[in-house]
Amino acid sequence: MNQITNTFVVLLFLFACPQVGAEVLDSGEDYYVLSHSAESALTIEQVWKRLSEPSSWWHPDHTYSGDANNLNLDLRAGGHWQEKWGEHSVLHGTVLNVIHQKSIRLDAPFGPWTYN
After folding, report:
1. CB–CB of 70/85 below 8 Å?
2. Sequence spans of domains, the chain
Protein backbone atom coordinates (compact mmCIF):
# COMPACT_ATOMS: atom_id res chain seq x y z
CA MET A 1 0.00 0.00 0.00
CA ASN A 2 2.86 2.42 0.69
CA GLN A 3 4.06 2.28 -2.90
CA ILE A 4 0.56 3.06 -4.15
CA THR A 5 -0.06 5.84 -1.66
CA ASN A 6 3.35 7.42 -2.20
CA THR A 7 3.15 7.20 -5.98
CA PHE A 8 0.88 9.22 -8.19
CA VAL A 9 -0.05 6.87 -11.01
CA VAL A 10 -0.58 8.98 -14.05
CA LEU A 11 -3.17 7.93 -16.56
CA LEU A 12 -2.96 11.15 -18.49
CA PHE A 13 -5.07 9.96 -21.35
CA LEU A 14 -7.62 12.00 -19.43
CA PHE A 15 -6.44 15.35 -20.72
CA ALA A 16 -7.71 14.44 -24.17
CA CYS A 17 -11.27 13.94 -22.93
CA PRO A 18 -13.95 16.58 -22.47
CA GLN A 19 -15.40 15.12 -19.27
CA VAL A 20 -13.49 13.11 -16.75
CA GLY A 21 -14.34 11.97 -13.26
CA ALA A 22 -12.36 10.38 -10.48
CA GLU A 23 -13.31 7.86 -7.84
CA VAL A 24 -11.58 7.93 -4.47
CA LEU A 25 -10.54 4.33 -3.80
CA ASP A 26 -8.84 4.94 -0.46
CA SER A 27 -7.73 7.84 1.68
CA GLY A 28 -6.08 8.61 4.96
CA GLU A 29 -4.66 11.53 6.86
CA ASP A 30 -1.67 11.87 4.54
CA TYR A 31 -2.64 10.16 1.26
CA TYR A 32 -5.36 9.34 -1.22
CA VAL A 33 -5.70 6.90 -4.10
CA LEU A 34 -7.76 7.89 -7.13
CA SER A 35 -9.04 5.90 -10.07
CA HIS A 36 -9.70 7.67 -13.38
CA SER A 37 -11.17 6.39 -16.61
CA ALA A 38 -12.09 8.06 -19.87
CA GLU A 39 -12.38 7.53 -23.60
CA SER A 40 -10.71 9.57 -26.32
CA ALA A 41 -11.03 9.91 -30.07
CA LEU A 42 -7.28 10.56 -30.32
CA THR A 43 -4.92 7.81 -31.42
CA ILE A 44 -2.48 6.43 -28.87
CA GLU A 45 0.35 8.19 -30.76
CA GLN A 46 -1.46 11.54 -30.49
CA VAL A 47 -2.16 11.04 -26.79
CA TRP A 48 1.46 10.06 -26.10
CA LYS A 49 2.75 13.14 -27.96
CA ARG A 50 0.45 15.45 -25.99
CA LEU A 51 1.42 13.74 -22.77
CA SER A 52 5.04 14.71 -23.37
CA GLU A 53 3.97 18.37 -23.71
CA PRO A 54 2.41 19.33 -20.33
CA SER A 55 1.69 22.87 -21.52
CA SER A 56 -0.94 21.40 -23.85
CA TRP A 57 -3.01 19.99 -20.98
CA TRP A 58 -1.86 21.45 -17.63
CA HIS A 59 -3.75 24.53 -16.45
CA PRO A 60 -1.48 27.54 -15.77
CA ASP A 61 -3.32 28.25 -12.50
CA HIS A 62 -1.69 25.09 -11.14
CA THR A 63 1.86 26.30 -11.73
CA TYR A 64 4.16 28.43 -9.60
CA SER A 65 5.07 30.66 -12.54
CA GLY A 66 1.53 31.14 -13.83
CA ASP A 67 2.59 29.83 -17.25
CA ALA A 68 2.19 26.18 -18.28
CA ASN A 69 4.76 26.74 -21.05
CA ASN A 70 7.40 26.58 -18.31
CA LEU A 71 6.61 22.89 -17.64
CA ASN A 72 8.66 19.99 -18.93
CA LEU A 73 8.13 16.23 -18.59
CA ASP A 74 11.09 13.95 -19.36
CA LEU A 75 9.43 10.61 -20.21
CA ARG A 76 12.06 8.16 -18.98
CA ALA A 77 12.69 6.48 -15.63
CA GLY A 78 14.44 9.03 -13.43
CA GLY A 79 13.21 11.90 -15.61
CA HIS A 80 11.67 14.97 -14.04
CA TRP A 81 8.37 16.77 -14.28
CA GLN A 82 9.66 20.27 -13.67
CA GLU A 83 8.92 23.93 -14.07
CA LYS A 84 11.61 26.49 -14.89
CA TRP A 85 11.32 30.23 -15.38
CA GLY A 86 14.06 32.82 -15.05
CA GLU A 87 16.31 31.85 -12.15
CA HIS A 88 13.51 29.79 -10.54
CA SER A 89 12.63 26.10 -10.73
CA VAL A 90 10.30 23.58 -9.13
CA LEU A 91 10.51 19.79 -9.26
CA HIS A 92 6.90 18.62 -9.42
CA GLY A 93 7.67 14.92 -9.73
CA THR A 94 10.04 12.16 -10.74
CA VAL A 95 9.25 9.56 -13.40
CA LEU A 96 9.42 6.07 -11.90
CA ASN A 97 8.29 3.90 -14.80
CA VAL A 98 7.46 4.31 -18.48
CA ILE A 99 5.88 1.68 -20.71
CA HIS A 100 5.86 3.45 -24.06
CA GLN A 101 2.37 4.38 -25.27
CA LYS A 102 0.80 2.50 -22.36
CA SER A 103 1.53 3.95 -18.93
CA ILE A 104 3.59 6.33 -16.85
CA ARG A 105 4.11 6.24 -13.10
CA LEU A 106 5.29 9.35 -11.27
CA ASP A 107 6.23 10.10 -7.71
CA ALA A 108 4.47 13.45 -7.82
CA PRO A 109 2.79 14.74 -4.66
CA PHE A 110 0.01 17.26 -5.06
CA GLY A 111 1.19 20.42 -3.48
CA PRO A 112 2.68 22.52 -2.29
CA TRP A 113 1.60 21.42 1.16
CA THR A 114 3.37 24.25 2.94
CA TYR A 115 2.23 27.16 5.00
CA ASN A 116 4.16 30.41 4.78
Report:
1. yes
2. 2-107
